[in-house]
Amino acid sequence: MKDYRTYSYWLETCGDDLTPRPPLAGSTEVDVAILGAGFTGLWTAYYLQQRDPSLKIALVEAEIAGYGASGRNGGWCYPGFPVTLGRLRERFGPEAARAVSKAMHESVDEVGRVDAAEGIGCGFLMSGALRLARGRHELPAITGAYETAQALGLGEHYRLLSPEEVAERVRVTDVEAGLFSPHGAVIHPGKLVRGLARAVERRGATIYERTNVEDYVPGPKPRFLTPYGDVAAKTLVLAGEAYLSRLARLRRALVPMYSLIVLTEPIPEERWAEIGWAGRELVASSRYSVDYLQRTADGRILFGGRGAPYQRGSRITDAQDRHEPTHAMLRSMVEAWFPSLKGIGFSHAWGGPLGMPRDWMPTTFFHADRGIAGAYGYTGSGVSTANLSGRVLADLITATPSALTALPSVNHRSPRWEPEPLRWAGIRFVQEGFARLDREATRTGVAPSGSSLVERLGRH
Which H helix or E strand runs over 286? Predict the structure, then answer.
C-alpha cells in the first residue's frame, strides 16, 4: 500500500486519515458518476447536491481524494485564469474577458465561503497576490498586465507598486516593481480537498477509492468501466485533469506537465524580521519558466516552479515527482531571492502533473445527448478555476439558468495535441526555449521581444 503522506507536505499535514476508502465492489448505477475525487470532481458533486439533494452521486478515484494536483499544488487560491486577460480579449472580446475576471474573483470568495460554512479549516487567508518584476527585463510584463486590466475597466483590482512599496510587504532581491491584487488567498490545499470529500459524503455521495477507470462509454447508456465493475449513470463527469490523458479517448486532448516544489524548514523569527512578509501575500515573479511562493502558516517558504522535462508519450509516473536538477534549481532560487536564508534547510520536495491543453484554454462541457460532461486543462491555475468549473457543471447538468454557462471556456474545443514524437519534440523545444529566454533576459537586462517562435508558440 502506498504511503500517501509522502506525496506532499499538504497530504502529510492535512490531519486526515489517508487510509483509502473501500473500492467499488461490483457494478452499480447512480444519477451522476464522477471520475476523480480532486477539486473539480468534489466541487461538482458539492454544487450538484446544492441544486438537487435527491441526486445519487458516486465519485470514482484511482488513488485517494486529493492524490493529484489538488493535494500537491502551491496553495494559491487567486483569480488568475490559465489564459491571460489580454489573450482572452484578443480571442473572445472584451466582454468575455471581463466576465471571466468577474467569475474568477467570485470563485476565490466562494472557496472562502464554503471553507467557513462547512467548518473545513483550510487556513483561508485573503492575503493578496503580488507579482514581481525582478530585474528591468520583467518590467514590461508587469506594466503590460496592468495596462490591459485598466483598458478592460478592471483597474480597481490591481495596483502598481514601487520597489520601496514592495519592500514594505516583502524584501526580495532585484525588485524593480510589483503588481498587487488584494483578491488572492493562501490556503492549505490538503485540508481543503480532504474537507470537501467529507462534506459531499455527509450529503450522501459515495467515494470509491483505489478504483481506476479504464475507459468510459458515452451514449444512451453511459458508464465507466473499472476492473471491479461498471458505474452506470445518466451523466458521466470527467474530472481527472492531467490523469485523463491516460484514457485512449483523451490521449491528445491534453498533456501532463510537471510542476515541482521545495519547502524550507521553519524559519527563525529573526530571519523573518529581515524578510518581512508578515501579510503572507502570494508571491511570484514574471519568468517565462514560472515560479510561485507562499509563506506557510507554520513559518516556512514554499517555492515552486517548472523545469522538469516533458516525457515522451505523456507518461505519468511517481518517479517524475522528483527531478533533482529542478529541485536543486528551486532551492538555489530561495537563496537568490532571500540571501539572508543562505544555508537554510529544506524539509520537503515534491511535484506532480498538471493538465495542459494545446491552446492553454480550459474547457467545461456537457453533452446531454451523450450523457457526458467534464472539465480540465487548468495549466497550473486550478485551485479557484476548479471551483468555477464545479459551479458551471452543476448548472449545465441540472439545466439551471446561469451567466456562468455563457463563459468562453464552456463547451470550448481546443485543438488536439500532435502525435508522438512530434508532440515531444515541440514541447521540449518550448520548454528549453523558455529557460533560454529567462537566462538571456537576466544576463542582458533586456526583455524578450515577444516575436520569437518560442514566445509565439507559448503565448497565452
Answer: none
Q: Which long-range contacts does 11-15 make (Cβ < 8 Å, 24+ apart)?
A: 11/66, 11/67, 11/71, 11/72, 11/190, 12/190, 12/348, 13/188, 13/190, 14/66, 14/71, 14/188, 14/190, 14/191, 14/194, 15/191
Q: Which three cell numbers stand for residue 430?
A: 518550448
Q: What is the DSSP letter of 170?
A: B
What residue ranges do the domains of the chain occupy? 4-73+189-254+359-406, 129-182+255-356
Strand order in the sheet with 291-295: 159-161, 175-181, 129-134, 282-284, 291-295, 301-305, 255-264, 346-356
Phi-psi category of 355—alpha, beta or left, where left has phi over 0 and alpha has psi -120 to 50?
beta
Helices and strands: H and E segment counts in the chain: 12, 18
Give me the chain's average pLDDT, please.
96
Q: Per DSSP, what are the bridge partners of residue 291?
A: 305
In contact, 229 and 23? CB cutoff 8 Å = no
CATH homologous superfamily of 4-73+189-254+359-406: FAD/NAD(P)-binding domain (3.50.50.60)
Same topology, domains 4-73+189-254+359-406 and 129-182+255-356? Answer is no
Segment 398-438, tens digit of pLDDT: 999 999 999 999 999 999 999 999 999 999 988 888 888 77
pTM of the model: 0.96
Q: What is the mean pLDDT of each run of 10 residues along the chain (460 residues)?
A: 96 97 98 98 98 98 98 98 96 98 98 98 98 96 96 96 98 98 98 98 98 98 98 98 97 96 97 98 92 98 93 95 96 97 97 96 98 97 98 98 97 96 91 82 78 69
Q: Using alpha carbons, select from 301, 257, 260, 251 the residue that is nearest to residue 277.
A: 301
Q: Superfamily for 129-182+255-356?
A: D-Amino Acid Oxidase, subunit A, domain 2 (3.30.9.10)
* β-bridge partners, 160: 179
- Do 434 and 454 meet the contact criterion of CB atoms below 8 Å apart? yes
The set of cell numbers assigned to 265 is 524548514
Q: Within the chain, what is the greatest distance between any pair of CA atoms?
A: 65
